[in-house]
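note to self — DONT lose this again. spent like an hour looking for the file last time. sequence + predicted structure for the chain T wanted, 101 res
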Amino acid sequence: MHCPLCEFEDTRDSVHGHLVQAHGEAVETWTVGSGRMRYRIVCPRCGAEHEARVKPRGQDPVFLETFSREIRMVAFDMLINHIVAEHEATVTSEQEAGSER
């Protein structure tokens, strides 16, 4: 699998770890008025966004900072799932076309 944000290529698990380690800035986190916390990840291939509420046990103001790595892990998992579901056929077709040349 290719990293969707750079040239790194390896197994799905390795790409997932690479995304968390090297591309954390791709995950946006914020708190809305009443203390609800959210994250967003955008697919670099098609621009589709995945946004979800972070569900901590309380409304700890430092939760996003304390658990930022775990939040990035979930966000990048969602991105990889999207890429496999929505773009894998495109990648496979491109690879097949390249091998026919």
